[in-house]
Write a structure and sequence with these properties.
Layout lengths: L1 E2 L5 H6 L2 E4 L13 H12 L3 E5 L4 H10 L4 E4 L4 E6 L2 E6 L3 H21 L15 E5 L8 H13 L3 E4 L3 E5 L5 H13 L3 H7 E5 L5 H6 L2 E4 L16 E2 L4 H20 L5
Parallel strand pairs: 1-12, 2-3, 2-10, 3-4, 10-11, 11-12
Antiparallel strand pairs: 4-5, 5-6, 7-9, 8-9
Bound molecules: magnesium ion.
Magnesium ion binds next to loops.
Length: 270
Amino acid sequence: MRPLAALGATEASRLRGVVFDLDDTLLTHGELTLEAYRALFRLRDAGLRLYACTGRPAGWAAVVARQWPVEACLAENGAVAFAREGRGVVRILRLSEPERLAERARLCALARELEAAHPELVPTDDAFMRLCDVTYDIGERVSVPATRLAVVRRDAGALGLRTYASTIHLHLTLSGDDKASGTLWLLARRHGEDPTGALARYAFVGDSENDAPCFAAFRTTIGVANVAASARRLSVPPRYLAPAAMGSGFAAIADHLAAERARRALGGAT
Ligand SMILES: [Mg+2]
């Protein structure tokens, strides 16, 4: 990982937008700080389209897309999104509603089997807002040791479930989507972006294992400083590393991208 300062004006100016994670990337231990929220406006004012991309539930995405200066918010690791449309939001799913309900019934039945074998699993406190996944708390209100988590994930895989882990939640899903495929599908649908072009034109900012598909797929990838704790679980680390953690790191990234784009606009060097 290279320092953020190595991301130059040419690369910053080529970008059309920024895709970013929420927990422990924009949010600092769950809190949206003033400097982090201000950073979103700094990026938008620099001409960048913003897409939040989180493992958090569809219910969060509906609020984020409606209230924040973003084009859309992908939730549940890319399985569902809410996008701004007029003065409201529209829900975007690949599945029809009957297909989603059928898949959800199968998912919940398999989750009950996993819970029977692991009665220690604690549902997340945002579970009631979810449409496409089932989630357990591993680092928010309770702490699950890595060795225990590995056993749960192995058993979930044996039941035919896919799992994603962030720093706070374990996700079970039957969806084929991850953060990268969900983002590319949304960009194509909302902005007519060719996926290959989108991978070069949108930066991704994240911090942990469920961001791995985006770190591997996008060309301009940036980790907030706390990504170092997840580095050994990332097949491809982010290309650039912010000088600070979580919301402060995100603010530093926004300042740097905006400054480099302004420098290029004024005819500065790369
Ligand atoms: Mg995160």
